[in-house]
Amino acid sequence: MTKLTVRQKIFVYMGLIILIVGGAHAVTKQVYMESLFDQFQKEEISATYLHASSEEQIEILKIYVSGKMQTFLLGNWVFFIGIGLFVSFLLSGVLTLPLRKLVAAIERVAQGDFDVIVPVQSKDEYGKVIQTFNEMTLRLREAEDARRRLVADVAHELRTPLSIMQLKLENAQQTGQDVPPEMLLRLHDEVIRLGLLVEDLHVLSLAEAGRLSLDCKPLDLSARLEQIVDDVNMEAEENGLDMHFHSNTKPITVMADTRRITQVFINLLTNAIRYTPEGGQISVVMEDKVLDRNAVYTRVSVIDTGIGIPAEELAHLFDRFYRVEKARSRHTGGTGLGLSIAHHLVKAHGGFIRVVSEPDQGTIFAVYLPSGN
Ligand code: ADP
């Protein structure tokens, strides 16, 4: 029965009720009719009947049988219809039980309790609805967890710069002296950091909600990359790093939002600079027509000879606010949002990022963008 659909179950149950009630009615009617003649013999065979002509005898018998049958049929129908209704009532209760459980669960969800799971006990329409409902509450739980984590993470990230600023301002107030320019500089740094964090969070929340509007136009990627590398080269040089751009063909045009794609490579290159010790090398390599799972991509790899990332950390690398422990202790000034943003921005362009890394050897972040032609 569990393999039948609800419609089939109702059809089968109703059919069975009709068959049983109809059959029982027909059998009892037959048995009663047969017993009627014995009854007639016992009750009605009187002198009048015996002395009547054969037509009159048939007439008397007809009146007797039809009178008795009318009363019997009425009683019999009332009895079986009563039983039929009672059984239908019980069956409708059994058939709608999963629905009632689901309604109770939906009411709990409506009151904000997402920890409800309704057991799936059949493969019919109810089973499918309950399974979908369970998947929906799982998504709601995940979204709620993500929201809680985000609030906690944001509060944690905001606390440090805010408390530094508060402390410095309180000190300045207590001493009553003029604020030295270095302190103003530190305060300004913290304000910039807060501003960047808020901007990053804004972009990330839009991207995660799929509401990031991209202004995609044909973009000469090689020229853009050359420019980006040029822009960050000064910072690389200041850190004693050697940075280069290589391309196997040029120019390569992709459909992209220039501002967002620039942000992706700035994030990757800033990380490469941040996590590569002095004397290291950073290369940006662009390749066209790279085949991956039956699709053609333009691949840009950001390769560094830095501290690398342990294998067990790679799975969480693109999570927001995730930072490898070593990186946290190095006070590198990152927010832990750079890779998460890069991942979402590349995804919004129909591409993806792959990472290969070896601790103390270096890291490769490969950005795959759908080929322009
Ligand atoms: P952050 O702002 O901390 O750099 P990201 O999201 O950009 O945040 O990066 C997440 C973490 O990934 C970093 O904290 C760092 O531990 C690690 N990471 C990113 N890029 C590199 C890299 N090129 N080499 C080594 N570790 C890296």
Walk me through the structure:
The structure is a single chain. By secondary structure, the chain is α+β, with helices and mostly antiparallel strands. The chain folds into three domains: 6-113, no CATH class; 140-208, Helix Hairpins (Orthogonal Bundle); 217-370, Histidine kinase-like ATPase, C-terminal domain (Heat Shock Protein 90, 2-Layer Sandwich). The protein is built from ten helices and seven strands. The chain has helices at residues 6-44, 47-51, 54-95, 97-110, 125-175, 181-208, 221-238, 258-274, 325-329, 338-348; strands spanning 217-220, 242-247, 253-256, 281-292, 295-304, 352-358, 362-370. Strands 2-4-5-7-6 form a five-stranded mixed β-sheet. Strands 1-3 form a two-stranded antiparallel sheet. Helix 5 runs antiparallel to helix 6 (181-208) and helix 6 (181-208) runs parallel beside helix 10 (338-348). It is elongated and about 135 Å long. It binds adenosine-5'-diphosphate (ADP).
Topology at a glance:
Blueprint: H1 6-44, H2 47-51, H3 54-95, H4 97-110, H5 125-175, H6 181-208, E1 217-220, H7 221-238, E2 242-247, E3 253-256, H8 258-274, E4 281-292, E5 295-304, H9 325-329, H10 338-348, E6 352-358, E7 362-370
Parallel strand pairs: 2-4
Antiparallel strand pairs: 1-3, 4-5, 5-7, 6-7
Bound molecules: adenosine-5'-diphosphate.
Adenosine-5'-diphosphate (ADP) binds next to helix 8 and helix 10.
Keywords:
Helix Hairpins; alpha+beta; binds adenosine-5'-diphosphate; 373 residues; two-stranded antiparallel ribbon; 14% strand; Heat Shock Protein 90; 3 domains; 5-stranded mixed beta sheet
